Amino acid sequence: IRSLSKSFGEKKLFEGISLKVEGGERIALIGDNGTGKSTLIKMIVDEVYPDSGRIRLGPQVKLAYLPQIIHFDHPDWNLVENMMAAKRGISAQSARNRLAAYDFRGEDVLKPVSVLSGGEQSRLRLCMLMDDEINFLILDEPTNHLDIASREWIEEAVEAYDGTLLFVSHDRYFINRFATRIWEVANGTITDYPMGFAQYRQVKAQEEAEKTEAPKPVKEKTVTEKPVRGDRAQQAARRQLTICEREIAKAEERIRALDAEMEANACDYEKLNALVADKDAAQAELDALYLRWEELSEAAGEA
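Below the sequence we write its predicted structure tokens.
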């Protein structure tokens, strides 16, 4: 991306943006709604054109794009027919095999695409997009409005993918899990933070603390009281956030261990039932920790 600018009427989204993506990076594009995140992605995939500047992909780059709103040209066709239309030249059996790799099996592949849930449509679109040559994957709000099972599937798919990743998301857990670099969109520019989300939040909190501590042309009472209370609240929230992140890691490890144990005891019905109950309890605990993490993240940044 070099000297990129884009406006819509009087609204200027970007001006003079220059950024470079290295192979294998996992970049989270974050910012408030309306700042131009989806527009930038659409410029990268040639759906929208910049006013000036250019975006150049390397000669070996093969890109796949999963938009926020999934559209199918033939929603009344079944999954096999849509796959054959997307991958011209493949047989019905090859289409079934590809679908099976994305957890579409049996009679499910004969359903019309229009009856699929949002998570299933995202999964099907990825199945239609991906192949061994894809090395640059772009996702726009991949976990938005998905149920827990669909979120888990998307997360596993991203975990297994080893190419370059660029994604827009407001999902703090997803960003924290996958991002190795943060692009923050605000005020017509993109600030590059070459770090994960936890470190990015620490940097932002420090920046806010420094702003708060800076001398201001106001009464001394205001300067000495409000920032101190805010800093103390932020510091307490950050300590709790660190503890919560450790608990999330332990809970995730517990669920992985239960999954392995369930697989090992697949033929022992009684033991498997007990393990399923344990996993349900562990998942409920993890869901509660995610909510707590969200609350603490807000407090650490805004207290």
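The mean pLDDT is 86.
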